[in-house]
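Sequence of Crossover junction endodeoxyribonuclease RuvC (Streptomyces radicis).
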Amino acid sequence: MRVLGVDPGLTRCGVGVVDGAPGRPLTMAAVGVLRTPADAETPLRLVAIERGLEEWLDAHRPEAVAVERVFSQHNVRTVMGTAQASAVAMLCAARRGLPVALHTPSEVKAAVTGSGRADKAQVGAMVTRLLRLDAPPRPADAADALALAICHIWRAPAHDRIRRAHAAARREPPTPRPKGTIPS
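Predicted 3D structure, token representation.
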């Protein structure tokens, strides 16, 4: 499976492509950061991110896109920019019919390091180790994008089983049990 990980942000949007499967070695296909000038108007910055993501999707042809789920921060301006960049990533993937998965920062940290409270240095070190790189990707946004892709590769089978079970439950009405029986 080839996954494009996106660590959304208006100034720096980390992107990373990882190939792999659960229980098998992972390989980094590409990593980078899409940058926009902080003094540019937000709509123009979003267009630049959209163009950059489209180029990455064209160049690397991922089978899925993993985006960091936006979480509440004290700085509303920062969270708004992050949410807007996240929406652009989801839009680009959906336009191509690619599945999109949202992973929380703590979920990604736990998947990659074993601790949902790991710091950026620990995430970078584990990404370096898991992908057998010479050095951690810089800046941290790039390492975070790779961590998102790794998390998705490892967790996608479980997420897919849950999604299929929910879909089946919506299609099939529950079977009534005769009165007085105990569920097994």
